[in-house]
Specification:
It is elongated, with a radius of gyration of 25 Å. The longest helix has 24 residues, at 186-209. The chain starts with a helix and ends with a helix. The strands form two sheets. Strands 2, 3, 6, 8, 9, 11, 12 and 14 form an eight-stranded antiparallel β-sheet that branches. Strands 1, 4, 5, 7, 10, 13 and 15 form a seven-stranded antiparallel β-sheet that branches. It has helices at 2-22, 186-209, and strands at residues 26-29, 33-35, 38-41, 48-55, 58-63, 67-76, 82-88, 93-98, 101-102, 110-111, 123-126, 129-132, 137-142, 151-159, 165-172. A hairpin with a 2-residue loop joins strand 4 (48-55) and strand 5. With 210 residues, it is α+β, with helices and mostly antiparallel strands. It has one domain: Sandwich (Jelly Rolls). The model is unreliable at 1-23 (pLDDT under 50). It has two helices and 15 strands.
Length: 210
């Protein structure tokens, strides 16, 4: 009976996880707020203007000769985590860091095909950074090597100072999957049961001896 209850509870948990994941959505953000299960913090800073506007339906912050930091609590899932930049001018360079560590991008992470909200192009990788080779440079960076435990911070730094770049960060708003605590196996349950019996018999014997 006990093990039937365990199996029943496990089924309920599995159904809950599946239904939670099914309700997840990709959010593209440019400012502080709560999106699904994730709270985002984008503080204003020198060279960074959160909530600067929208472009083709995508909200963007403006980074111009400075850095914009996006904080995520709890950590945003690495799956479906990407960056969108629009209006980057020739010669402007964007560098990235994830969770406080420099993240050099690769050319394979630059997506010039499925990038909303406008015609992509004019971007390339140079020294691990995103550089505009045409104007405007519009594109998407997929962080293929983002930390598997999730992203707590993304910082985007722009150098070049030729007018600024509109930026947004997109992520799956579902909670990061957490490995469930291990459930004792049948053998472990038997050991626990035997240890409990031995303790009970020991206590009973001590009482009799007194």
């Amino acid at each position: 009976m006990f093990f039937k209850q365990i199996r029943s509870i496990s089924s309920i948990v599995a159904i809950f996880v599946i239904s939670t994941q099914a309700g997840a959505a990709i959010q593209c953000v440019n400012s502080s707020g709560t999106y699904g299960s994730v709270t985002v913090t984008v503080p204003s800073a020198s060279g960074c203007t959160p909530n600067a506007g929208t472009f083709g339906g995508i909200p963007y912050a403006l980074v111009d000769s400075g850095s914009c930091s996006f904080g995520f609590s709890p950590a945003a899932s690495a799956t479906g985590f990407y960056f969108v930049g629009v209006g980057q001018n020739v010669g402007e360079t964007l560098s990235f860091s994830l969770n406080g560590t420099a993240y050099p991008i690769t050319s394979s992470e630059i997506d010039l095909v499925s990038t909303p909200p406008t015609t992509p192009g004019g971007l390339a990788e140079s020294g691990g950074n995103l550089i505009a080779t045409g104007s405007p440079g519009n594109g998407r960076v997929n962080f293929l090597s983002a930390p598997s435990g999730g992203v707590t911070n993304l910082t985007v730094t722009q150098t070049g100072g030729l007018g600024g770049t509109g930026i947004a960060v997109c992520f799956d708003d579902a909670p990061v999957a957490v490995s469930p605590a291990p459930i004792p196996t049948l053998g472990e349950w038997a050991m626990i049961f035997m240890a409990s019996l031995m303790a009970m018999f020991g206590i009973r014997r001590m009482r009799r001896s007194k």
